[in-house]
Specification:
With 306 residues, the chain is of the alpha/beta class. The protein is 22% helix and 26% strand. It has helices at residues 24-41, 131-137, 172-182, 206-213, 250-259, 273-285; strands at residues 58-67, 73-80, 94-99, 105-108, 112-113, 119-125, 144-152, 161-167, 190-197, 218-224, 242-245, 265-270, 293-295. The protein has a seven-stranded antiparallel beta sheet. Strands 11-10-9-8-12-13 form a six-stranded parallel beta sheet, sandwiched between helices. The longest helix has 18 residues, at 24-41.
């Protein structure tokens, strides 16, 4: 079985013509260069690159879709069809595009990738009146969508510390990254997650975050912006969480930055555009170099990190 076929060239219709910063043809050229390098060096890794393409949509079926009960957030599992085995070539913090039959698509960051079923999980936030999520939520198990990717991703080699700012479902971009780092016994990078959500009951993947926070080099800080029943905080003792009432304020950012003064730190941000811009500007105001900041979800065209 061939696990590493050459990338498939996109058709002219795959380009939207809007002058995207990363055109589908740019992606194709980059993937071809990587494929030629793997062929030249003989360094195969056994990943199922035949089941995903950065330039073409591949069919995936809906295996499960379940509401999490938090602000209309749903957990979806998509699997390659026909069924396959192996490991999808998705690195944590990368994202894929899920496309519906009518051409609508949205980017999602897998929070888990199966080692034996060629499937992945994402968190989907249903927005009121949203065309894409409205269509997706109306689909059933075994219905088929298109998946294209993966794209993006970050590397933290050479950094002493990684500080992550998440808003809402943006936490999905960091759960897999933290798990991957903590599974490496040789990794001594300090991991600090600052996660803003509305209420304690609205914390997504809370158990998974607590498992990560149990490691010596990982800490999770929650910022609850609309929590009214603070008696619920007593439930946090079991999870050993750090909880702050209100948003991630300028004072909070100042304290976070101050604690990183003696460390080479990578700053990661993932939330909606308003959250991204606020955290980014706050970091820059506190003299963090733009080259050390990465946005994992940015749809504002005129908002450039560097």
């Amino acid at each position: 079985m061939m696990y590493d076929p050459p990338p498939e060239r996109p058709s002219e219709s795959d380009c939207c013509g809007n002058g995207c910063a990363e055109c589908v043809f740019d992606v194709y050229d980059r993937e071809c260069a990587r494929w030629r390098r793997r062929r030249r060096t003989g360094r195969g890794d056994g990943l199922r690159r035949d089941l995903l393409s950065a330039t073409k949509c591949t069919p995936y079926r809906i295996v499960s879709a379940r509401p999490l009960g938090h602000d209309d957030v749903h957990a979806y599992t998509f699997a390659a069809t026909p069924a396959a085995r192996g490991r999808l070539p998705i690195a944590y913090s990368q994202h894929v595009h899920v496309r519906l039959a009518d051409g609508l698509d949205r980017p999602y960051t897998p929070v888990a990738v199966a080692d034996d079923g060629c499937s992945f999980d994402v968190l989907v936030k249903a927005h009121p009146g949203g065309r894409f999520t409205g269509r997706l939520l109306g689909m059933s198990v075994d219905d088929v969508v298109g998946v294209r990717g993966p794209y993006g991703g970050v590397r933290y080699d050479g950094y002493d510390s990684v500080v992550m700012f998440a808003g809402g479902t943006g936490v999905a971009a960091f759960v897999g990254l933290m798990r991957n780092a903590l599974d490496d016994d040789k990794c001594e990078t300090l991991l600090r997650l600052h996660y803003s959500c509305k209420t304690l009951d609205g914390v997504l993947m809370r158990k998974e975050l607590a498992d990560c926070a149990a490691y010596w080099n990982c800490a999770v800080h929650l910022y609850l912006t609309r929590e009214h029943d603070w008696s619920q905080r007593s439930k946090s003792f079991w999870y050993n969480e750090n909880i702050t009432e209100g948003r991630i304020s300028q004072d909070c950012v100042a304290k976070i930055v101050d604690k990183q003064q003696d460390l080479k730190t990578l700053w990661l941000i993932c939330g909606n555009d308003e959250f991204n811009r606020y955290v980014f500007d706050s970091l820059v105001d506190h003299d963090i170099k733009r080259d050390d900041i990465r946005l994992l979800n940015n749809t504002t065209k005129d908002f450039e990190v560097s």
